[in-house]
Amino acid sequence: MVKPQISNDEIILNYIRRHGPVSKALIARQTKITPPTVTNICANLIRQGLVYEDRQERSALGRPSMLLGFNTDIETILIVHVRTHAIVYYVTTVGQRILYQAETSIIGCTADEIMQHMYKDMQELFNGDYAIKSIGLVLRGPVDSSKGISIYSPNGKWNNIPFKYILEERFHVPVYVENDVRCLSTGEYYFGSGKEMDNLIVLKFSYGLGVSLIYHGELYRGVNDSAGEIGYGVIRLDEKGNEVRLEDIASETSIHTYVLEQMEKGRYTSVQDNPLVTSKAFRVEPIYEAAVEGDEVCLEALSRVGHYLGIALANIANLFNPERIILSSAMGNAVGVMDPILRGVLERNSYKTHAINLEYSGNGSYYTLLGMIDIVSAKRAEEAWLG
Description:
The protein has helices spanning 8-19, 24-31, 35-47, 111-126, 163-171, 180-191, 246-249, 252-264, 275-278, 285-292, 296-320, 335-349, 364-385, and strands at residues 22-23, 51-57, 65-70, 76-82, 86-93, 98-105, 132-139, 143-144, 149-152, 159-161, 175-179, 199-205, 209-215, 218-220, 234-237, 243-245, 324-328, 358-361. It is an alpha+beta fold. The strands form five sheets. A five-stranded mixed β-sheet has the order 6-5-4-7-11, sandwiched between helices. The protein has a five-stranded mixed β-sheet with strand order 14-13-12-17-18, with helices on both faces. Strands 1-3-2 form a three-stranded antiparallel β-sheet. Helix 12 links the parallel strand 17 and strand 18 (358-361). The longest helix has 25 residues, at 296-320. The two termini are 25 Å apart. The mean pLDDT is 92.
């Protein structure tokens, strides 16, 4: 497949959008576009109302330079994030200012019920006071982003739902559909702890496992848009010779499963009466907190999963040799428990060309939101704003 060429106008507009206020000299230096071309394009962007002159920056040499900023209020977008237990709605500007936020529980809902909740809540927002011009839909599981199809949803249990077509027919605005881990990695790359790192791995450690690769500054998608499904990787064989997937033994679900198994065996744990742990729509945060406080069963759960997660990280590091690996999770203070385990496995199993640069991020929802806003904005720049 031939990669579409990005115009100089798009490159410059996106650079100002992500890094502004910036000078034309810095734009030329960073984008490798000639200064006269940068000057002409910036003048056009100002005339179109996409960019404005923000302020003058004093310089030790020569005249002060004018800094250019992005018009963050040119469009309002609706971001819909279908998470494990809830659908979260954000109405934002393209400048990342949140105008509205709400969520709807989908615990115990069928696939049809989840979709009906989503359509109803979105319609209410479109009937409200916000002039929504586009929609970004964030989903778990494999997504064909070019066609806007959810190939499979691990929480919704649906297959091949053409959300782009469905939502555009309903709401008559452009719709962009993306996998949650790719949104997360985009947010981390442009605005988080992966900033300016052109070879970056982001691993989302949650109820399942997902990986996203930034390669030479661009999101790597694979041949049919399904790269990164590391949770489906086989880690070992069980006693019967059946394949055991990484997601089954190196995820928050496996932490929870181990704790329940030990409770069934009669072992005491401080979380055994916690409804957040024992309910079907469980949460893992109480297990993390109990592990930090020294609960033996919870510590064992983290140690067991940490060993396999460390193996996954070592394999990733050996295969891709990234500048940094960002592990995004809700571990909180339990990072202090997990980190020595992960680093021990990494040290024993990674190829010794350089130390593994491993960072933790505990604000995955926020960077997922920022990443989807950026993805939608880049598409709107290409398809609408630049005419």
